[in-house]
Amino acid sequence: MIYTIPSFHNPAGVSQGAQRRLEILAIAQQARILVLEDDPYGLLGFDGEVPRAMRADDADGVIYLGSFSKTIASGLRVGWAVAPHGVREKLVLAAESAVLCPSNFAQLTISEYLATQPWRQQIKVFRELYRERRDALLDSLQAMMPEGTTWTIPAGGFYSWLTLPNGLDATAMLPRAIAALVAYVPGTGFYVDGQGRQNLRLSYCYPEPDRIREGVRRLAAVVEGELELANTFGTTSGLHAAEGSSVPAPDLR
Ligand SMILES: Cc1ncc(COP(=O)(O)O)c(C=O)c1O
């Protein structure tokens, strides 16, 4: 099976173009494997266009997963799957054996909301809200991040994927960032093999623009500090904490 998040990827903040989607479908068809299209952010594009789902081009080869977590309420944890018949039956069996029945209360709450509330309008409001926060993030990264730092420009969703200047290590830097009261998810959390040390995920979905700007200001200062260390010692990997420890060193307030 090919697992993919084609629209507004978590954590990369990028999307697959229409042509690439078709190419992936063709590869999967040729190899006779299913595609799992995970699409919790598809409705949250900033240009208002909802990207064409891969499933729309291959109903038999794609399992589509949607979620209300990003558009209505994350706490309810209700989503949906659109799957070929045989897969759907197995999914129902698997769900029954795992949780017996997803919360009826949560499902009825979503059902009532969809039936009685202007949810399409609400999604438009969310798009504007997240676009404003995305812009606050990108503008302040542009203004404050030291040279050599790069990041993706998301056209929707919640995340940008940042690459630190050469020699810096996002995992080793995290305790200093937390001490400066700014947090991120180190890139290694998204790989199984230790890649991603130079990367980190920034999420702009929750904080308001002012706090995003302040967060970037603090993060930029931490990166500057790391760069000074790297310029002195060559790298910052392993400089801060002992292997296995992820708490700030005692000198950090
Ligand atoms: C790519 C992706 N899939 C699924 C989920 C979770 O969705 P749900 O809350 O419906 O389980 C998330 C949320 O963080 C996500 O980023």
UniProtKB/TrEMBL annotation:
Renumbered to this chain, the signal peptide range is: none
Which UniProt keyword terms apply here?
A: Aminotransferase, Pyridoxal phosphate, Transferase
Q: Name the Gene3D superfamilies on file.
A: Aspartate Aminotransferase, domain 1, Type I PLP-dependent aspartate aminotransferase-like (Major domain)
The UniProt record lists the Aminotransferase class I/classII large domain at 6-219
- TM region positions: none
Which BP terms does GO give this entry? alpha-amino acid metabolic process
**Which SUPFAM superfamilies does the annotation name?**
PLP-dependent transferases
Give the cofactors, semicolon-separated.
pyridoxal 5'-phosphate
Gene Ontology MF terms in the entry: pyridoxal phosphate binding; transaminase activity
Statement: the UniProt record of this protein carries the keyword Transferase:
yes
PANTHER family cross-referenced by the UniProt entry: AMINOTRANSFERASE (PTHR42790), KYNURENINE_ALPHA-AMINOADIPATE AMINOTRANSFERASE, MITOCHONDRIAL (PTHR42790:SF19)
Q: Which protein is depicted?
A: Unannotated protein
Protein source organism:
freshwater metagenome
Q: What is the lineage of its organism?
A: unclassified sequences, metagenomes, ecological metagenomes
